[in-house]
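Hello,

Our lab assistant flagged a job as stuck in the queue for most of the afternoon. It eventually completed. Since we weren't sure the result was trustworthy after the delay, we are filing this so someone can double-check. Below is the sequence as submitted and the structure that was eventually returned. Let us know if re-running is recommended.
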Amino acid sequence: MGRRQRYQEQVEPLPERGPVESLIYWRDPKKSGPVFGGVLLVLLALTYFSLISVIAYLSLLGLTGTISFRVYKNVVQAVQKTGEGHPFKEFLEFDLSLPPEKVKEISEVVVAHVNAGLSALRRLFLVEDLIDSIKFGVFMWTLTYVGSWFNGMTLVILAWVALFTLPKVYETNKTQIDANLEFVKSKLAEVTSKVRAAVPLGKKEEKKD
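-- returned structure --
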């Protein structure tokens, strides 16, 4: 009984925050599956065709489907002599306008992230902290090898697959993953502290009172 309780605590779902989290955590496979598969197919198509071609083909496919369905419904209504009206009436009346408050909120969040990113890049490139700048340089150097192995679209596809797999894996194995991450963080902090102690230039100058 104790083992079952520990297992249930281990796989206890993370708190929901919105529809996006519901999709990537596969709360409803009937919704997550089409979103994941549809976008993945588009990304795979972009690896073989240009963006304009993919958009054109998808538009033609969608247009063919809607026109065929509209003609079919018109024929059915004519034969059965019913007055159901336009088959897409519900979607035509759906309000697609963006709420100004939501747009403003999103804009403020984006601007805040851009400003924070620019500040971080300035700090790294102008070597405010030597150790942080060296770590950033090592990261960029690693990316040169990643770029030689994968192109941009391949990385986007891998990121999309990871978005729909890693969160669920983490949720299922949260206890073990957290323990391993904590161990790695402690080791990195230990190494960083030793490097900072050995390289005085890596320390930020203390502000004088």
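-- support follow-up --
The delay was a queue issue, not a problem with the job. The result is valid. Confidence is low (pLDDT under 50) at residues 1-16, 205-209. The two ends are 60 Å apart (CA to CA).
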